[in-house]
Amino acid sequence: MTMWGGSKNDRPENGDTPEEENHNGRSTSRRSYERQEPNERTRLIDSPRAPHSDGYLDPDDPAVSPYNLWSVRFLRYFTVLFLVVSFLWWVLLLVSIFISPPKMHSRGSGFFDFAFTCLTIGNLLVSVIFFVAPAKALRITTAIISVLLLIDVIVILAVPRIRLEEGWVGIASAVWAFFIAVWCILTDRVVAWGKREEEERLTGRPETRRTVKEWLAVMVATIFATIFIIIALLMTLTLGIRSRDATLSMFGERILVDGEKYQVHLACVGNVSYTHDKKDPTVILEAGEVPLEYDFEHWAYNAYQNGTISRYCYWDRPGYAWSDNAPSPHSAGMSADALSEALAKAGEEGPWVLVSAGTGSIVSRIFSSRHMKQVTGIMLVDPMHEDLLHRVGSPGHGFMLWAYGIISPLGLERLAGALFKGRTREDRVYGRNAYQGGKFIKAQLQDNLVADSLSKNEVVSARNIQGSDTPLVVVSSGIKCRTDSEWERKQKDLTTLTDNLVSWDVVNKAPHQVWDTLDGRTIMEKRLGSLVKKAAKMKTPQ
For the ranges 57-66, 449-458, 484-493, which has the lowest average pLDDT? Predict the structure, then answer.
């Protein structure tokens, strides 16, 4: 039989134990007390068992934390806030690659500002995840990143062409990335100071050793920071190449179009001439899948020197060579309107003979249907048929273009080409390596997104209203027709665009770029001469 000490009135009621009764008068019970997260108050004040005999805590005690300082908590809150803001900006930039929000279109590709924001988020994630594991190595690596980002900001602001292409969106993204890198350095230093202060105050000495967990955290954070250094360095070198390419002179001029949202490059060769009081037609060249200046324009220049044509104009579609990127989405019909506006602002008037290749034939056909009175002849070189636009617009191809564009700011191929293969500015701007540039990739991605929808609808409508008496020449690739029966059938169908077919030639050994072979160039120039002569007899408004 258990005996209770004290009077009856002092005995517990309702079955309470003495231990529970002893704590009923306090603010917390022993159970709730034990469930509390340990902090310096519970360790040093409420729990006489925790401190050592000298009154200090063990260095491994959870209460020894830099979070005890309001300045450290303040920095963490703002770091998390910056991460949220950067993520929202990242989402907006991702969307703008496909659909340009109002006032956010930049004349460049938009891949560089996206890359800067990815780097920003990476720095912030490392800072948040390894917040209480400050390290000198992490501060040094982040300082290197900040220096590289500062160089990027200076280059963007100092080079007029890059500043124009990146716009306020790219500049803001670069400046924000630099600010965040500096912020991460400051945060790491403050946390290191706070950690040392709390260790001295609560344990009596600064802790010089690290646990295995802390060493692993420092190692992982430093590895990530080193990767970020490599990324920032590659981006800086790529900006240097872009600065070099911006010094390449061009023939012709850039003209603002589409409400002055972007510029397109237009150039004309030869003087306006008249024969028998009639104006000779001007040939308008439209590129295929590669910039026109690479070799297609060279063929036209030879035809001009040979006297086959008296005058020709050529332009770069948005994103090609010296032209800016257009806002997204951008269809073939929008390119045709941009060409029309550029010609009007340059004072160019018809009659025109349109010469186009590959996918550029889609733009020329739409342009012809919208300028039927001024277009007196059409020449299509291995043209793309509207029924085959699904090849251009395939989702798999679009994803690969997007992925290629995302990594394009690293400039891996361009840097390797410049350093080890002797690639020149001409190669990168309009030559063999133009496909590696962000602007060109963005233009290809824009074509992919609307090829089998908006662009197809535009060219189908153009075919329905195309003038039936317009002289037409079709020159096809023999290799392409032999290896792709569907392509051959569609080439034949394109010969019925008008009722006035001048000729249809299938150049036996010619590839898709028919002008790459001597036979192809010879046949093309011969057919163009016949087309121009026939077009000159067409009646056009004076």
Answer: 57-66
Q: Regarding beta strands 262-269 and 312-315, do their DSSP bridges make them parallel or antiparallel, or are they unpaired?
A: antiparallel
Do residues 336 and 462 share a domain? yes
- Distance CA(21)–CA(150), nearest Å, equals 66
DSSP symbols for 320-348? STTSPPPPSS--HHHHHHHHHHHHHHTT-
- Where helices occur in 283-388 by DSSP H, the ranges are 296-305, 332-345, 360-370
Q: Residue 395 to residues 400, 438, 451, 452, 487: CA-CA distances in angstroms?
A: 9, 19, 11, 11, 21
**DSSP classification of residue 3:** P
Q: Can you give the pTM of this predicted structure?
A: 0.84
* Residue 200 near residue 139, CB atoms below 8 Å: no
Give the list of residues 6+ apart from residue 99 with CB closer than 8 angstroms, or none.
Answer: 328, 329
By the 8 A CB rule, do 49 and 63 touch?
Answer: no
**Of 213, 229, 245, which marks where a domain is finished?**
245
Is residue 357 within 8 Å of 381, Cβ to Cβ? yes
Name the band, by pLDDT with cuts 50, 70 and 90, for residue 32: low
Give the residues across from 284 on adjacent strands: 313, 354
User: Within 13 Å and on the Cβ side, how many CA atoms surround 14?
Assistant: 3
**CA–CA distance, 540 with 542 (Å, rounded to integer):** 6
Host H or E run for residue 240: helix 212-245
What gap in Å lies between CA 214 and CA 211, rounded to an integer? 5
Please indicate, yes or no, if residue 373 is contained in any of the structural domains: yes
Give the domain CATH number at 266. Answer: 3.40.50.1820
What 3-state DSSP class applies to 357? strand
∠ CA(242), CA(87), CA(399), 5° rounding?
60
Domain interval for residue 95: 75-245
Q: What is the pLDDT of residues 48-67, one digit of tens each?
A: 445 554 556 666 666 666 77
The single-letter DSSP state of residue 12 is -
